[in-house]
């Protein structure tokens, strides 16, 4: 059975797959002494892993050294890693599962766990991993990889989202970039007014960014879905406040009108006003402090602050999201697959993988072996503890985006009121909740 291992999207061109066989000797993090492999009669088990690219050659750069250490500790397990292209990855996995040809393991994304469960592709791991195996994870990292209390894909990397400021633009607007802080919506609105006077944008909001809308709702102290997933809160005040803010920012001209899109297909090719130095704040990922400045050396990148509607509400920075190792439900080598997953989620392996792949590790001890750029480490330290997970992040993610996007567009363009848009969304979403959760 062929298994793919998944890697990160950030640093590369997404191209064709590469297969790597990992019957190698120890090379990276220290592993237990290998058993005597001279016994020609040793019975071996082969597992297949699908991964997704983070570097120009993940097979050699990431997985060969990681699997050298694994094979030294477990010479009876042979690991074949196939680096797949990002495009169409979910559909390819579903098709492979339907044909009985799914890998044993693949690198899954947090936002699609419910779909994997519905399609019967993913194996629950509660009975296969111990508390010691998971000791280095934060509670939110476990929540993000679980559904209804069952863990499906222990994370290996995180995408830590937060807020960045353009220090050069702030200076021109009369702020000191070293002390400027925009943590409440009123403070943000005041900045938007000043930015508009210079024909600059405050930030960027896409009507098809479901994650962005969830963050705005949580900044308002709300939650879109009830804990039991039987109802939605689209007509509750925090959700109304969130969409009202979006409408205000679009209608005031504080965000680019081009981002009021009506379909997923329209997301490509939109202008990047942040990198063209025409946008004062932006929601960015952890390594952007390096990547953005490399893309435009004139950008004065300042690490910003998490937000809330007002000071009475706990600020949030973003959603716990990332990649994790998942075992397919049709694997015929579950014991060997679990052994590999347990090895790869050890803190030293998580940290080592992050160094090799140029990503951000989850957990605590893993960061002791992680060597990021100083600004990336500061970004993760500031925003990581303020990420949230839970029912909103693993309920009807793709469906919510498709249903809500056109209604958000109608509201920000003045074609529907906030209440009308949210009523339409609630009507459609509640039908889906009933179908999915009863």
From TrEMBL:
Superkingdom of source: Bacteria
InterPro entries named in the record: Bact_solute-bd_prot1 (IPR050490), SBP (IPR006059), TAT_signal (IPR006311)
Signal peptide: 1-25
SUPFAM superfamilies according to UniProt: Periplasmic binding protein-like II
Key words, A-Z: Signal
PANTHER family assigned to the protein according to its UniProt record, in alphabetical order: ARABINOSE-BINDING PROTEIN-RELATED, DIACETYLCHITOBIOSE BINDING PROTEIN DASA
The name this protein goes by in its record: Extracellular solute-binding protein
Protein source organism: Caldilineaceae bacterium SB0675_bin_29
